[in-house]
Amino acid sequence: MILTATERSAKANQTPNLKNSGGHAKLTGMPAQILDGLALSREIRAGLKERVSILREHGIIPRLEAIVAAQDPASLAYVRMKRKWAETAGMESGSWEATESTSQSELMDRIAQLNQDPMVNGVLLQHPLPRQLDEDAALLALGAEKDVDGITPDSLGRLTAGLPGFRCATPLGITKILDGYKIDCSGKRAVVIGRSNILGKPMALMLLERNATVTIAHSRTQDLPALCREADILVAAVGRPELVRGDWIKPGAVVVDAGYNKVEGRTHDVGDVHFEEASAVASWITPVPGGVGPMTVASLLDNCVKAAEAKLDLVSR
Prior knowledge:
Order of helices and strands: HEEEHEHEHEHHHEHEHEEHEH
CATH class of the largest domain: Alpha Beta
Largest sheet: 6 strands, parallel
CATH architecture of the largest domain: 3-Layer(aba) Sandwich
Structural class: alpha/beta
Number of strands: 11
């Protein structure tokens, strides 16, 4: 079970001095509490395993299919991890590798096959695909009912309109972290750094659904540090290593780092936030790795299981 800051303090027999800062409890003189996405993802995946077991009893096995660039080692590694976690939960998975010689028609034919295959519940288009392929056309062709990554124009339109549909996996994972740690967004000032269609924009909309007052910052934003210092909830999703420094952060703010950057000389991925500096100011913070990444995968799989459960509902009617 995920503990709140108060529960963690009580467990450790501490009596910290609490002060109100940005609407969140800040442990004075203590580093930020960790928003442990890996631990939370384990809880979600355990629940998925139970749900998959029920589906299997009804003859339905959730299946996730990925389309991935064959020459991209990082993408291949991400897809292998997603498939491994899916299979650990009792799901089935597969992948189709697009090479530098794959044609657009071959890609579109593959998507059409997956759209029509009743045994496939979810399809993942792993970005980036080979350069000669038109990803936008591929996303337009993918059926919303199988877009478990929530990134097609149809899915994003449903989010904008407040209609049912699969939500984009990374922002969904972030909202699950906030919910899991009982961080109330209502009435809070939220700043999202980044305006991509797969992270920044949907993240802002999901925070808006939780009644936050949201600002999207980007490369043309003037005085970005000053804007960030107004945020009770700060989400960094811009792809620039350690862009956000400690003096950018409002004392007691919740900091969510959705960045994953390769930096020469570092043994692991580096986030968009300078973790050590931010930890001295924030009340809660996600680490990199172990924060947003595991929850992205867990949310993707959760969407895929929901797609299979919708199929069971149709069979049961």
